[in-house]
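DM from R.C. (forwarded with permission)

"hey, sorry to bug you on a friday — could you get me a structure for this? deadline for the figure draft is monday and I only need the backbone to look sensible"
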Amino acid sequence: MGMGLASSRSGRRSRRAPMSEINVTPFVDVMLVLLIIFMVTAPLLAVGVPIELPDSRANAVEQTPEQITISVDSDGVIYIDSEAVPTGGFPAALAAIDRQANGELPIIVFRGDRAVEYGRTMAVLGELNRAGFTNISLVTSGSVSPP
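My reply, with the result:
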């Protein structure tokens, strides 16, 4: 009789033990979606001026938030970050660039298209120097075999 009561009680009232495991599948799904979104959008965060950069074997320059990108496209149009500078307005645009908190001018990252004539590139670099920008980094597309 004791066995009959025990088996009948467990049959009528089956209690489940509390679940002590966390289901991480939705968390993993969300993280994978975020990873894909960041992988797709990260290349789009670069300066949006389409330029065919020359090749170089130089080491990569580390990016800092206090830098300004100056680009010259294949037509010779000058861009500050991603905004085109009107013809003849480059000196005024350089004068409008704010100084950093410590009073120094920001770092300039120069991107020149490989099709731009050398004289145009030197004119832009000379104007940067005349405006007081002496910390200028030149950007290239990547490595090239040794000459």
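R.C.: lifesaver. The helical segments are 2-12, 25-41, 90-95, 118-130.
me: no worries. The first strand starts at residue 67 and ends at 72.
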